[in-house]
Specification:
Helix content of chain B: under 10%
Largest interface: A-B, 26 and 27 residues
Largest sheet of chain A: 6 strands, mixed
Shape of chain A: globular
Structural class of chain A: mainly beta
Strand content of chain A: over 45%
Strand content of chain B: over 45%
Oligomer: heterodimer
Structural class of chain B: mainly beta
Shape of chain B: globular
Largest sheet of chain B: 7 strands, mixed
Number of strands of chain A: 11
Distance between the termini of chain A: 37 Å
Number of helices of chain A: 0
Helix content of chain A: under 10%
Radius of gyration of chain A: 13 Å
Order of helices and strands of chain A: EEEEEEEEEEE
Chain lengths: 111, 114
C-alpha cells in the first residue's frame, strides 16, 4: 500500500463547476499537508500548505484535512480551463525531511 | 524574482556517459532535494541535503551522485551506472524548520537516452 493514494483520473468537469480532489494516506504521523498544481512539462507549484486537521481557504481554493479518517481534500470553486493540470497531494511528518507525494490526479476543465 | 532554476530543460545522454543537471536557488533555503518523476509513479526522492557539505541518499540513489558546496547550488550527476535514466528530474528546496516549511520546485530537466 502506498503511503499517499490519489485517483489518477482524468476528472473532467464543465467550466464553473466546483471540483473536489481527494487523497488518502496511511501514515498517522503526518502533520503537514500540501497540494501542488503541475502543468505539463513544468514543475509542481505550491497551492496550499496546511497543518493538522481543519480547513484553509485561499481565493478559489480550500484545503481540508481530516486526520481521523486520514483524508485530505482540495476544493476548487468556479473552475476555469486554466485549472486543467495534474494535482499532487503530499504529507510530511514533523522532524523529517521526507515529503511523501501521491501520484497525482489529472483534472480537465472544459470550456 | 526568488525561485529555483534548473538547467538545461532537455538533456540527452549517450551510453556510458555521465551527465550533470544544474539546480540553483535564490530563496535562501537550507534544504535542497532531487526527485525523479516517471508516469504513474509520482515523485521519488533521489538525494537531499539539509546543509552545505552534507547530503543523504533518498529512496533511489543508486546510479546518481550529488554535491553541495554552496547553499544555493545542488547539482545532480546521472552516472553511467544508472541503467534507466530517462525521466523528468525535479529539484526542490525548503526553508529551515524541519517539517514546518513546504517545498518549492524548479521547472525540471527532461533527460533522454540517445
Amino acid at each position: 500500500q502506498k503511503e499517499v493514494e490519489q485517483d489518477p483520473g482524468p476528472l473532467s468537469v464543465p467550466e464553473g463547476a466546483i471540483v473536489s480532489l481527494n487523497c488518502t494516506y496511511s501514515n498517522s504521523a503526518f502533520q503537514y499537508f500540501m497540494w501542488y498544481r503541475q502543468y505539463s512539462r513544468k514543475g509542481p507549484e505550491l497551492l496550499m500548505y496546511t497543518y493538522s486537521s481543519g480547513n484553509k481557504e485561499d481565493g478559489r481554493f480550500t484545503a481540508q484535512v481530516d486526520k481521523s479518517s486520514k483524508y485530505i481534500s482540495l476544493f476548487i470553486r468556479d473552475s476555469q480551463p486554466s485549472d486543467s493540470a495534474t494535482y499532487l497531494c503530499a504529507g510530511i511528518t514533523s522532524g523529517t525531511y521526507k515529503y511523501i507525494f501521491g501520484t497525482g490526479t489529472r483534472l480537465k476543465v472544459l470550456a | 524574482d526568488g525561485g529555483i532554476t534548473q538547467s538545461p530543460k532537455y538533456l540527452f545522454r549517450k551510453e556510458g556517459q555521465n551527465v550533470t543537471l544544474s539546480c540553483e536557488q535564490n530563496l535562501n533555503h537550507d534544504a535542497m532535494y532531487w526527485y525523479r518523476q516517471d508516469p504513474g509513479q509520482g515523485l521519488r526522492l533521489i538525494y537531499y541535503s539539509q546543509i552545505v557539505n552534507d547530503f543523504q541518499k533518498g529512496d533511489i540513489a543508486e546510479g546518481y551522485s550529488v554535491s553541495r558546496e554552496k547553499k544555493e547550488s545542488f547539482p545532480l550527476t546521472v552516472t553511467s551506472a544508472q541503467k534507466n535514466p530517462t525521466a523528468f528530474y525535479l529539484c526542490a528546496s525548503s526553508g529551515s524548520g524541519v517539517g514546518n516549511q513546504p517545498q518549492h520546485f524548479g521547472d525540471g530537466t527532461r533527460l533522454s537516452i540517445l
